[in-house]
């Protein structure tokens, strides 16, 4: 009898472990120019953690090499090695382990390579691979277009007008290929929404904007604007700002499910369509 109980206990533990392993949280890869650049993004990582999203950080070490953890990655340009050590993946393999790629700052050179379908740098190869695999790529929209090293060397903060126009053109081309852009401060929020959308909590093609108002950090009100086809109860549950939301504004023609409507009413959230006064 005791053996039977022991076996049953072991089986229960194994089943529980298998279930836990089967549901893996989404993981994002943040790519930074160097090891000091990530220090300004602590709030991003806190927001990801609160929403059950893991992240790794890849530190670029130059034009074509990078550090992911303790392993060095080198791009596969002609005549160059692909792996710098036996455990490092090639850049084109990196996106396979992530739900999405977040690049807070991109420069003119890498934007041009992506826009022209060229590889040869770690960033361009990872972006190419992620888009081919159907993973989202999220890039900071307010980057200067100059690499951090170039800014330090040239003592310049941005590109001249002619190069800036070219940079904006490249960014539009990147968007055509599927790269998304967002203000740097909102990258984590957008990434959370994209991870939620990939799990079916939000309609594809929907857009949520957040406006926070208040006299202090302890007394703030959030206004959510949803532009999509359906607001479901699952979507309401997945919004990190929902408990301090004052009003939800919906696009004309958006369907609000009855259960979602009840949940919003219970939370005291007013619902308004854009065509209403």
Describe the 3D structure:
With 277 residues, the protein is of the alpha/beta class. It is built from 9 helices and 13 strands. The N and C termini lie far apart (72 Å). The radius of gyration is 22 Å and the shape is globular. The protein has a 7-stranded mixed sheet with strand order 4-3-2-1-5-6-7, sandwiched between helices. A 4-stranded mixed sheet has the order 8-9-11-13, covered by helices on one side. Helix 3 runs parallel beside helix 4 and helix 3 crosses helix 6. Helix content is 36%, strand content 24%. It has 2 domains: 165 residues, Rossmann fold; 73 residues, Ribosomal Protein L15, Chain: K, domain 2.
Level-1 CATH class name of the largest domain: Alpha Beta
Give me the side-by-side strand order of the main sheet: 4-3-2-1-5-6-7
- As a percent range, the share of strand residues is 15-25%
| Number of helices, where a helix is a run of at least 4 consecutive DSSP H or I residues | 9
């Amino acid at each position: 009898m005791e053996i039977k109980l022991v076996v049953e206990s072991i089986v229960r533990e194994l089943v529980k472990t298998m279930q836990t392993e089967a549901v893996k949280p989404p993981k994002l890869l943040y790519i930074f120019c160097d090891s000091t650049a990530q220090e300004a993004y602590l709030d991003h990582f806190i927001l990801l953690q609160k929403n059950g999203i893991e992240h790794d950080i890849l530190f670029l070490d130059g034009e074509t090499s990078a550090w992911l953890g303790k392993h060095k990655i080198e791009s596969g340009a002609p005549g160059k090695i692909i792996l710098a050590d036996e455990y490092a993946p090639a850049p084109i393999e990196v996106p396979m382990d992530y739900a999405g790629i977040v690049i807070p700052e991109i420069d003119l050179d890498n934007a041009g390579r992506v826009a022209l379908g060229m590889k040869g740098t770690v960033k361009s190869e990872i972006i190419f691979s992620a888009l081919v695999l159907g993973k989202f790529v999220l890039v900071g929209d307010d980057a200067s277009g100059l690499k951090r090293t170039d800014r330090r060397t040239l003592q310049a903060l941005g590109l001249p007008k002619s190069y800036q126009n070219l940079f904006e053109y490249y960014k539009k081309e990147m968007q055509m290929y599927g790269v998304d852009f967002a203000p740097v401060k909102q990258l984590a929020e957008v990434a959370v929404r994209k991870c939620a959308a990939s799990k079916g909590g939000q309609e594809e093609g929907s857009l949520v904007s957040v406006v926070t108002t208040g006299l202090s950090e302890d007394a703030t009100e959030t206004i959510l604007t949803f532009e999509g086809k359906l607001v479901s109860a699952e979507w309401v549950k997945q919004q990190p700002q929902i408990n301090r939301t004052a009003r939800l504004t919906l696009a004309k023609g958006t369907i609000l499910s009855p259960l979602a409507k009840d949940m919003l009413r219970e939370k005291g959230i007013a619902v308004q369509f854009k065509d209403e006064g």
